[in-house]
Structure formats: structure tokens, C-alpha cells
Amino acid sequence: MIHYNLKCNNDHTFNSWFDSVDAFDKLEKTKMLSCPVCGSDEIKRAIMSPQVSSSKTKQAVSLSKPASEIEKKISEARKKIESLNKGKGKIQYRIRDWGISRQRYWGCPIPMIYCEKCGDIPVDEKDLPIELPESIKIDVQGSPLKKLKDFTECNCPNCGSKAKRETDTLDTFFESSWYFARYASFDQPDAMLDKRAKYWLPVDYYVGGIEHAILHLLYARFFNRILYDMNLVDTTEPFKKLLTQGMVLKDGTKMSKSKGNTVDPNELIKKYGADTARLFIMFAAPAEQSLEWSDKGIEGSHRFLRKLWSLTFVHQNNHKDLGSISEKEITNLRYKLHSTIEKVTDDLNRRNSFNTVSYTHLTLPTIYSV
């Protein structure tokens, strides 16, 4: 809550608490505040105090009118403005339209047909899905679908006249915004989803890059609400838990082909192996933070894996007799092992701290010698 010192047009001063700055501004503009001394509704803010209520026991002085009365006044004002033909009330959402079409070949065809007599007509459900033609030749700029008469020319499903098929394809986000639900019903030929989607959803863990946080994540929530309204899923939210992963940087900037600062994974795997790359990425930084690529870090991860492999190989081939190890050494080893299991479990399940999981494993082999 925000604390304000207020003043009316008769110079009477008083103070009050509000839920937010916007709450005060709305009450001030609609004249829903009144002076407790003279009753004037000409209220202005005198001084804003940085004080914020932090205790549930603090009694906030409420000098504003009930929310229901505010909404009533707003409705009356809207009707008055509309009766004078000075404006029209509408709900303004703070979101832009989503352009879902793309002028390219790869993508899901938009199932629409254009007829000169009937206008825009959706493809009949029995003709779905529309499959992309494979006999294409990409030789000029733009979508090759426009040049394929076998694909574009068709008949109107409404009147039977000659018509043209839409050649734009859907934005890939359009499909990926609900594919997590389709995975649960992947072999269902007769419906979008079946009861298995209700069993498996919501998704336990969503891991995605920061650039998708306001795109794919937002679109997926929109789609899930539609699926919920259609009774295809039982949950209003598609994901239980979110991890926004950081980016891999090179020389302080995001890796980009245009900047020429990328690392060839094939060369890396050929030299060190895929496990080395995985270990370095997990160890170098917390998953939600960006990490700086380091060739020396890659070499360090590779040395650890070689040490771990050698330790296991020698142990298996020597069949070391545990009887030669003292009881104290065995106790210390078991304590360290179970402490590691406990810490790794907590880091994975509660803290999402994958880099500390990697570090814990790095330190474990140092206490065991062969």
C-alpha cells in the first residue's frame, strides 16, 4: 500500500493509504475522494511519502468510495458521452495483434480457400490436414507454393466454383503453442486431443530461453485457455514450473552467425566428446544466467571426465579388496557419498541449481583413491 498526504480546495489536509499509485489516480480523476472535514471532492496530492504499509495489523484509513460505486459512476459517464455522440466505450487490451501468416514454404498450410463468389471459405474438415507438396524447386525469392498450380488451384467447398488455395503458412509458434498437449495424444487420428491429454497435463517443467518468455510462453497460455474452454484439457494453465535459461555468450555478446562468434559443435564433439560440452554448459553458470564460453573451461571439463573414467576403469579391473581399507575410510566415504546424494537431490528438485550439482560431482572423486 502507498501512503499519501492529501489536500482539498479549502486547504484542509489529511492522509490516506491506497493499494497503488494507479488506484489513487483513478479515484482522483473520477472525483471519488472526499475531504473528511468539508466533504469537498476537489482533492489533490500534497506530498507523497515513501512509506509503505508492511504489517497486516496496520489500519489503513479508507476515505474513498466503494469500488461498486466507482464502477457505477464510470458506467454513467460512458453512457453520457455516448448519448452526446462524443465517443464510445471500449475495452483496451495492452497486447498487439498476432500476425500468424508467413510467406514461406516450410510451415503448416493455412486451411483457407478464396472464392470470387463466396469470399474466404475454410477448407472442409474431411480434407484436413493439408499437406505440403514435396516436388518443389526453391529458385527465386518468396514462397514456391505460389507457382504450383496443382496446389493453388482448387474448387470452392461451398459453391463448387474454381478457387485458389491460401499459399501462406502458419507461424511455427502457432503449432508449438499446443504441441505439448498433442504429444499426449500423438496417435489419435480422429480428434485434436483425447482423454490422455487430461491425464498428463499440465506440463511439470517448462524450460525456455528469455526471448521466448513473452512469445511462445504467452501464446501457449492463450491456446491452453481455448483448449480448457473446449473441455479438451482440465487445467487453466499449461505449465507448473518455469525456468528461463540464460544465453551462451562469446566475447561478451550473444553467439551469432552474422557476428562470426559461433562455436562449431561438430568440431567440439569430435575433439572432446558430447559429454564434455554438456558438463561445461551445466557447470559454467546457473541455468537462469548467461554464461561466457571458455575454451579453457572446456578443457577442464574434459580432464574431469577422463579422471572419472580412469577411476572407474581401474577400480573395475583391479577389483580392489575393500578389506584393505580401514573402517574409518569406509565410513568417511559413505558419509561423503550420502551427503552428495542429499545435496544433489535438493539442488535439482528445489533450487534448480544445476551448476552446483556438477561442482559436487567434481569434488566427489577427490576423496577416493585407488
Description:
The strands form 5 sheets. This protein has a 4-stranded antiparallel β-sheet with strand order 6-5-8-7. The chain has a 3-stranded antiparallel β-sheet with strand order 2-1-3. The chain has helices at 21-29, 67-83, 149-152, 172-176, 179-183, 195-200, 216-229, 265-272, 274-284, 295-318, 327-351, 354-363, and strands at 2-8, 13-18, 43-52, 101-102, 112-115, 119-122, 153-155, 162-165, 169-170, 206-209, 242-245, 248-250, 253-254, 291-292. Mean pLDDT is 80; it is low at 47-64. The protein starts with a strand and ends in a 7-residue tail after the last helix. It has 12 helices and 14 strands. β7 (153-155) and β8 form a beta hairpin. The protein is flat, with a radius of gyration of 32 Å. The chain is an alpha+beta fold. The protein has 4 domains: 2-83, no CATH class; 101-170, no CATH class; 173-245, no CATH class; 248-367, Isoleucyl-tRNA Synthetase, Domain 1 (Orthogonal Bundle).
The CATH fourth-level homologous superfamily of the largest domain: Isoleucyl-tRNA Synthetase, Domain 1
| Count of DSSP-assigned helices | 12
The counted number of beta strands is: 14
Please compute the radius of gyration using only Cα atoms: 32 Å
Provide the succession of SSEs.
EEHEHEEEHEEEHHHEHEEEHHEHHH
Task: Write the topology of this structure.
Layout lengths: L1 E7 L4 E6 L2 H9 L13 E10 L14 H17 L17 E2 L9 E4 L3 E4 L26 H4 E3 L6 E4 L3 E2 L1 H5 L2 H5 L11 H6 L5 E4 L6 H14 L12 E4 L2 E3 L2 E2 L10 H8 L1 H11 L6 E2 L2 H24 L8 H25 L2 H10 L7
Parallel strand pairs: 10-11, 12-14
Antiparallel strand pairs: 1-2, 1-3, 4-9, 5-6, 5-8, 7-8, 12-13
